[in-house]
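User: Can you predict the 3D structure for this chain?
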Amino acid sequence: MIRFENVGLRYGMGPEILRDVSFNVPERSFQFLSGPSGAGKTSLLRLLFMSLKPTRGLITMFGKDRSRITRRELPLLRRRIGIVFQDFRLLDHMTTYENVALPLRVRGRDEGSYRSDVVELLKWVGLGDRMHVLPPVLSGGEKQRAAIARALIEQPQILLADEPTGNVDPTLARRLLRLFIELNRLGTAVVIATHDLQLMEQVEARRMVLAAGRLDIYD
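Assistant: Here is the predicted structure, written as structure tokens:
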């Protein structure tokens, strides 16, 4: 689905954050992205989500050259990618249900066409009894699961997660990992950026390690 070939990235006139990065994300695959703080993990996720353009190199997204994707095409392609941000980005004045349904509402869909899907997804992530609660009332783990549900509501082909277990205890981290594994089993490719070595040891998956701007891959 996604291929990077000798990709480089720099901000402004600064040094390259990423250098000669090459890898691919096959359909239904599962991979961890790790590396020390400041290694460029979030920047790489932003390239995958197409919120950044590379300074050099070739990125192919769903068969299209990233440099030739128009502004009109970009939103349509992004719907095929779900992303879970490290800071959740839930809207405090909206209920859990409304936050999860927001991507569909923005697209102009009638609530009657998606309400049952949102309710079912919230039950699947363990928030069936928290649908009408505002984010400030939710625990950190509940906010994380709400953010995951929002990323999944458009049934993406690939899910990107930036440090999804960084603010939760080990028990909840394992529960979230099982959620990602089940999602992958159902057909979604998963990329998890994390520095949690214990988390990565719990599942056999490709490891992509960023260090000093370069990427090493361990299958």
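The longest helix spans residues 170-185. The two ends are 18 Å apart (CA to CA).
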